[in-house]
Amino acid sequence: MSLALFALSLGLPGCSSPTAPPAPPGGGQRLVLSFDQFQQTVEPVLVRQGCDAGGDCHGGGIRGTLELSPQGAKDVQFDFDQVALQVYATNRESSPILTAPLAAHSGGTPHPYKPFDTTADPDYQAILEWIMAGTVQ
Question: pTM higher than 0.90, yes or no?
Answer without folding.
Answer: no
